[in-house]
Amino acid sequence: MKKLKLICKFLMVVISGLLFLQCTSEYTPIAGADGADGLDGIDGVDGVDGSAAVCIACHSTEHREGIYDAYYSAKHATGSSWERGTSSSCAKCHNNAGFVDFIETGAVSPAGYSVSNPITCTGCHDSHRSFDFENDGQDFAVRTLESVPLYFLEGSGYEYTIDYGNASNTCANCHQPRRGPPTPTDYPGQYMNTSPYWGPHHGPQTALLEGIQGAYSTFTTLVEGIPAAQAGTHRQESSCIECHMGGTTDGSFGHSWNPSGNNCATCHGDTPLENLVVENLEADLATLGALLENVVGQAIDRASSSDPWLPVFEADGVTPVPTIGIVKFEDGEWHPTRGLFDLQSAEAAWNFLFIIEDKSGGIHNPNYAKSIIRNSIAALQ
Known about the structure:
The protein is mainly alpha-helical and 381 residues long. It folds into two domains: 58-128, no CATH class; 144-380, no CATH class. The protein has 15 helices and ten strands. The strands form five sheets. The chain has a two-stranded antiparallel ribbon with strand order 1-2. A two-stranded antiparallel ribbon has the order 3-10. Helix 13 (281-293) crosses helix 14, helix 13 runs parallel beside helix 15 (366-380) and helix 14 (343-358) packs antiparallel against helix 15. The longest helix is centred in the first third of the chain and has 23 residues, at 2-24.
C-alpha cells in the first residue's frame, strides 16, 4: 500500500512538471500545405565589368601632378580678383563657394561670404554622370554642361543662350559681359556714365566669340559690314575647351588655360602662336583710343552718395562744365570716365572696352572685332 502511494505521488509530480513546461513554452504552429509559386520577376540588365584602372587613369597622383602645377600658375588660382568674392554681387565668379552655389541653386548667398577663395577643382568638377565612358563619353565630372543665358538680359524681355554642346558651357557662366551696350538715358541722344567700372566688365570673351554685343545703333554709315552672329570660324569649328585645354603635351591637360599652338596648327600651319594676330587691329585700337581720350563731354556730380548724378554747369547755370576723354589710359590700363557724353561716343567707347577687356587681341572673332572697331573710328572721325 505504501509503495502504491509513493508511485502515485511520483506520477503526480511528473504530470505537474509536464503541465508547467507546456504553459511556459512558445506555441509552435504546425506547417500547412505549400502555397502556389509567385510570378517570376523581370530579368535585370547586365552590368558593365568594372576596373580600377579606369579610375586610376585620371585620379592617380602621377596624372594629377601636371594639372596641379599648371593650375597654380594660372589666373584662376592667382591674382587679387578673388578678394572681391565676399560680396554677393561678385561671388558668382570671384569665389569658389559662390560659383558652386550659383551653379547648383541659381543664386549666391544674399548676405555674401565671410571668406573668398579662388576657383578650385571642386568649383568646376563634381561627380560623373555616368561611368560607362565607352558608350556615354567621358564627362570629366564637370559640374555643369547646361547651356547658359546672357545673365544681364534677365528681365529685359530679351534673351540669348550660349550653347557649345560641351564643357565649354561651364566657362560661359563667368566669361560673358556683366552689362550690355549703352542706351539713351534721360538726356536724349546722350549717355550718362556714373561708374569708373563701366563697360562689359572683365569677361566678354563668349560675347566676342558669338559675334554679339557690339554697339553701333548711332553709326549713320558703316564702313565695314558687321558679321552675323555665330559666323566666326572659331565659333563654328571650335570652343573654349578645344582651344584652351586641348592639344597640350605637358601633362597639364590645359589647366593653365593658355591656348596650345598644336590646335592652331590645324588651320594655320607652322605659324607660331605668338605670331597669330589680327591684322591691323592693334593699330586700329590705338587710333580709337586716342580719339576717345579727346571726346568732350559734360562733367557730372552729386551732393551725396544717395543723391542722383546731375550735369554740372558754370556759374551762369547754362554753360556746361566740360570733361575731356570718355576713356583714359592710367596706371597701365584703360578706364572709363564719369560724365554725360553723346551716345555715339559712348557706343564707340563700349566697342573699344569690349575688345580691350576680351584680352585675346580679337582672335576669338577677328572679323567681328575689326568691324566694330573700324566703324567706331569712322563714327568719331
